[in-house]
Structures are given as C-alpha cells and as structure tokens.
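Sanity check record (used in CI):
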Amino acid sequence: MKPHPPPPPPPGSRGWGGGATGRRRAFACALAGAALALALLCLFHGAAFGPTLRRPRLRLRASQVQAQAPLPAGLALSSLPVCDARHSELIPCLDRGLHHQLRLRLNLSLMEHYERHCPPAPRRLNCLIPPPDGYLVPIRWPRSRDEVWTANIPHTHLASEKSDQRWMVVNGDKINFPSGGTHFHYGADKYIVNLAQMLGFPNDKLNNEGNIRNVLDVGCGVASFGAYLLPLDIIAMSLAPNDVHENQIQFALERGIPSTLGVLGTRRLPYPSRSFELAHCSRCRIDWLQRDGILLLEVDRVLRPGGYFVYSSPEAYAHRDPVSRKIWKQMSNLAQRMCWKIASKEGQTVIWVKPLTNGCYMRREPRALPPMCGHDDDPDAAWNVLMKACITPYSKRVNKVKGSELLPWPQRLTAPPPRLEEIGISSKNFTEDNKIWNSRVAQYWKLMKSEIQKYSFRNVMDMNANLGGFAASLRKKDVWVMNVVPFMESGKLKIIYDRGLIGTIHNWCESFSTYPRTYDLLHAWLLFSEMENQGCGLEDLLIEMDRIMRPHGYAIIRDKAAVIDYIKKLLPALRWDDWSSEVKPKRDALSSGDERVLIVRKKLWDQAAQAAS
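Expected output for Methyltransferase:
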C-alpha cells in the first residue's frame, strides 16, 4: 500500500513557502508585480526572448495556494513563454552544451559526458519547448513501428550512415524501418528465431513459454530488436546514449517502442538487481573488458538467476583477426571467472548463462577476481550509485530455491511477487492494490471515452508508479508503460520488474532522460503533493511534463483539491486547454484526503500563429 505523503513543514520553517503570513502576502504582491512586468517584457520582445529569462519564483505549496487570491488570467500566460526553436530537442540533463558552460571536467573514456548532469536552478529555461517546423501528430501504432513522419524527427543522417545495415530508409515525407540492424541485416524477426533455436526453446519462440519476459537491449540503435520481440509478449528496455547516433532513441520512441536514454558509464543503471531474464548486445560498441570487467558485472547485477547474455560481435567469430581473437580470449576468461557458462555458440553469436545459485561462487579460488560484493552493498540501490567491479551474490532464499520463483507471463502480472516481503507489503494488500487500480483506470477511460480512439495512446508513463497497478490495469490495451518510481521509494521498482513490467528510478525535481514529445499519456498520482514536500516547484514539474508530452497527448493528474485548483489556472499557459475533465473520485483504500482527478489534453500548436506572436 502506498504510504501517505509526509505533512508539510510547520509555519515558520525554512524552505519554499515557509514563513509567516505577512511575508506570504508581501511575497504574493511582489510576485504579481514582477510577473506582470515579465508579461509586458515578453509580449514586447517576443517569444524568442523567453529562453534567456530566469524563472520567476512561483514555488507555492498547496496550503499557500488556498490562501492566495485567484491568479489574474494574464499572469499565468505571461509566465510561460516559448523557447527558441533551437531548443526543440532539448534534454536538460543530457545537454552537452551545458557541460562547457559549467566547465565540467568529465572523463570521456568512461562515458561520463553521456551521463546525467542537470542544470542548476538559475540555468533552467523558463519556457515551453516548441515542436519543429511542420510537426505532425505522430503516426499511430501499429503503423508507427514501420514508419514515422520525417518532419517530426528531421534527422536523416542515420539513414545514409547505416544504409548497408537497413536501419532506416527515407521515403519523401516518411522514414521507414525495414527491421534491419548492425548485426541482422535480413531482419530482426529472423535473428530472434535463430536465438530461440540456439537455446532449444519450444516452437522456436524466444519467450520460452512465458519464462522470458523482461529483456535489456544495450546499444539498441533504433530498437528494431525490441520492436520484433513485442509479438512474443517480451518487453525490452532498449537502451542507448545520446551519442554520435544522437537521435536513435528519439526514432525508437517515435515508433512506439519501449526505450530510454542511458549509458554504461560510471553509475549503475537505474534498475534493481535481478530485473531481466536476458540481456542483449549486438555490436553495441562497448568495451566489456575495461576496469576489471565492471560493465559486464553491471549486466550481471541486473540479470536474474539463470539469465542469458546474448553477445553478437566480431570477437565471437572473427578468429582469423588477431585483435578479435585476443578480445575473445579475454572475454571468455572474464565470463568464466564470473561463473557464466556458454549455453550456445553459433556463427556470429555466443550466449552465456548466469548460474542459478551461489555454488560456483563459493568454489572459486581464494582472492579470485572479480571479488564478491561485500555484505554492506545493496544490489538494489541504483540512483546515482557508482558501479562496483564485484559479483553480486544471491540471497539465502534465492540460493535455496535455485531461481527467482516467478511465474510465467502473464500469470506473474497479478500474482504477488516473492520480493514483496522485502518492502514490507503483504500479499493481501498487493491484491487489493490491483483491484483498486482496475477500478480507477476504468473510471479514467470512461471519462475520456468520447475523446479517444483505440490507438490514441501508445507510449504511456506512470510518473509515480507505486507497485505498478496502473500499468497492470492497461494490459489489454495496446500500450507500453514506463513505470517511474521516485528515488525515495526505489525499493518498489523490483516489484514492478517481478510483475513483468518495466520502469526506472527518478527524482522529479530534475528533468527526465528523454526527448521532447515522446509520451501520449502521463499519469501523476499524488506526485505534485510529494514534490512540494521536497521543496520543488509545481511549475517546474508542469513544464517538464509539457516537454515530454506529445501534442494531442493527455495528462491524468490525481491529487489534492488545492493542487488541482492551482494547476487548472495554468492550463491556458501550458496550452493544455484543448479538452479537460474534472471529477471527485470515489474514495478507496489508497485515497489521501480530498482528492480530485483532472484529465487534460495538450493542444497541437498553431505554428503560424506562434511565429507571428
């Protein structure tokens, strides 16, 4: 069950919104005057001036929102100008231009420049990210798997650079994806069948009768491998950095394929231990031998007992080349010391399998390398935690049962996961959580019924996912859900993965690692209340939501009445007033006080009018 958010600080405490009533009123008056001046300034100089301005301090708590006079209609509009067009693809925490501005000393050989480095508050833009010229409502799934609008991602260099590998082909106003990849020129579907045959799985299906569900694809390109796993009921977290192929993940998300920006650098991936049944690297250009094998050990951390690592690379087959032969020998030696065994090797691909128990680890020579991780290491700690060059042993329970104890998909979606007890939640409460979210989601869809169609949604994000109940309730809809667990509750993410869902850890006081305009639906349950308790601005979060939400996309915000009332005043400024619905929901065991549900739809901007403004 989700705990109630902590109470706000008492009057007079330090932080955003603290202080006496007199100071509040003075602040409000000063704020109104400053915002009015800013409105006139922005109207005079035009929207292009907006990005150079610093954000006005509108960081109010819900308790203050209730006490303030209604915001003037023009105040909200003037406080949210539009960024310059050069920021149309801005990812604030992955902005390499910021590295130079802040004079960050990053180790390029360790990929630190591809890791998250967020702008300090004074350097954040106070503006809405515009779409590129000619932007169109994205092509709907399932057509989007094979084609997207060129205007939406006007970057065709990958098509020419990877023309021999059939990544993508430009056809006039559309870009097509013929299912090719660096290592599977003749199609990802045929490559996937071959992997299943190598492992001897029934009916040549890689899902192994539901026992392989969660896959990690590192260095994924435009995620065609993940796209062709979906018909098998396998969901892949397709991962790649914002590197020289900087728009590869943007293409993947535009196609409607589960994917995210990330890199194997110096920090752990934002996933708990034992999250994936299979990890995949097809010419992913990763040096697995560096730093005592630390990157391969990170893959080992997130693999389940008996999990597979599929490695398709020249080192696996080009033994006439002395360099490849040397790398293969070292790679094989490292895998052996990690207790991995070769499950199958054929042509250009080798598949290793991870042990089911601690038995092999215990039989290694004393002081063998890599060492075992210490007892003080938490293998599930994954938010801004440095990688460690050590092997993560299994718990006593996993070692005893020789596996993860997970049911095949889809039974595991609703069955209480074994790791529930690690976070102090009973099977009864888990089952009740499922029932509540089934009821809530049914109500949401009833409210939107007159506005949406079958394929209105494809990319969905639950911004405060708890145990994954919202995503589980969407199983019969043709969508995928990025379940985001706030870093303060990171232990819940392993429950989400054990259910056969995917997600990540995040701090919503910072920007999310994705491109603008990548999600069709955002769901935020009590997120704003939790953010205000951390001293983070409601407006910052709204602007970030606008950045990652597609035009004609929807946001479902369920929060305290005072928070909803305040957000409603900003809808015109956000251009989220295309359509909206507000209800007081029926109370249930997860309700927190006086909650309201607000559903809004974002406008598709009139770019001609925007240019003239």
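The longest helix spans residues 21-45. If this sentence no longer matches the regenerated tokens, the check is flagged for review.
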